[in-house]
Design goal:
35% helix; Rossmann fold; Glutamyl-tRNA Synthetase, domain 3; 3-stranded parallel sheet; 10 helices; 2 domains; 3-stranded antiparallel sheet; binds zinc ion; alpha/beta
Length: 307
């Protein structure tokens, strides 16, 4: 077995809800089952969306659930120098360019297309390789990406995307100077030597973009497993927007037991009265991604949970 390093990378835009706990548990168990280490990274790239105290709240919740991480916590907010260096090297290699298109211009362009909701960036500023005097974003060019970019996802199977027609030149640094999630995640995964990524299926669609970035930056591509999304009884994804409840830390064992069952494992009933560490130990020994695949077969990408 290769040296397994996994991670859980929440963004501190609110407390953990059951869906994010499930991702934490799955990535933890997959790492520990494979004798790997499990890192926690705070994806705090977007200050306007963050809630004061959320990062500490997430960390204390993980601790209460017995999800103890290895090593130091990494904060993306402290790593801007690394992201900037990568942006500059992509610019130097003409793999990225300065884009001064306004939102209005892009919207007008889209509305003229056959499929307005699905029209990639028209390439207007592709030749702009010196910084303009007006505010700009920085986009990565997909010009040369004629072959579809494919990943072999452990849970979702082979997933391919044609970056030119499906995505278009995408932003790696925004006009408001914030770095794009794809860029930061790829750099940190490389820097932290992450070998396996277990995360929510909502990120599957952006994985080919990240793989493309990895190739341009000369990084290895980690193994991916995208978990089915968790929905409530109304079929809505559990998220802050659908008012998913923050998970309590008063009944960790019961919630953790439910998380294992939701992931397709069959924890013994009596285990829910044990401390979280004991439940996680059982989960580590019993872990199998095949269990999740069986769950997903019931409803291809959704797990329903009453919380
Ligand atoms: Zn442009």
């Amino acid at each position: 077995m290769l040296n397994y390093i996994g991670r859980f990378a929440p963004s501190p835009s609110g407390p953990l809800h059951f869906g994010s706990l499930l991702t934490a548990v799955a990535s933890y168990l997959d790492a520990k089952h494979n004798d790997g280490s499990w890192l926690v990274r705070m994806d705090d790239l977007d200050p306007p969306r963050e809630i004061p105290g959320a990062a500490d709240n997430i960390l204390s919740t993980l601790d209460a659930y017995g999800l103890h991480w290895d090593g130091e916590i990494t904060y993306q907010s402290q790593r801007h120098d690394l992201y900037e260096a990568a942006v500059q090297s992509l610019l130097t290699n003409n793999q990225a360019f300065y884009c001064t298109c306004s939102r209005k211009q892009l919207a007008e362009y889209s509305s003229q297309q056959d499929q307005p909701t699905h029209s990639p960036y028209p390439g207007t500023c592709r030749e702009q390789h010196t910084p303009p005097n007006i505010p700009f974003s920085i986009r990565l060019t997909t010009e040369g990406a004629h072959q579809p970019v494919c990943i072999n996802d452990k849970l979702q199977g082979r997933f391919c995307q044609n970056l030119i027609t499906d995505v278009g030149d995408f932003i790696i640094k925004r006009k408001d100077l914030l770095y794009a999630y794809h860029l930061a995640a790829v750099i940190d995964d490389h820097w932290q030597k992450i070998s396996h990524i277990v995360r929510g299926i909502d990120l599957l669609d952006s994985t080919p973009r990240q793989t493309h970035l990895q190739q341009l930056l000369g990084y290895n591509t980690p193994h991916y497993a995208h978990l089915p999304v968790v929905v409530n009884e109304q079929g809505q994804k559990l998220s802050k927007q659908t008012f998913a409840k923050a998970i309590e830390t008063t009944q960790c064992s019961r919630v953790l037991w439910t998380a294992l069952s939701t992931l397709g494992l069959k924890p013994p009933t009596l285990l829910q009265h044990e401390p979280p560490e004991a439940i996680l130990k059982w989960g580590t020994l019993s872990w199998s991604t095949k269990a999740i695949i069986n769950v997903t077969r019931i409803n291809s990408t959704q797990i329903t949970i009453d919380v």
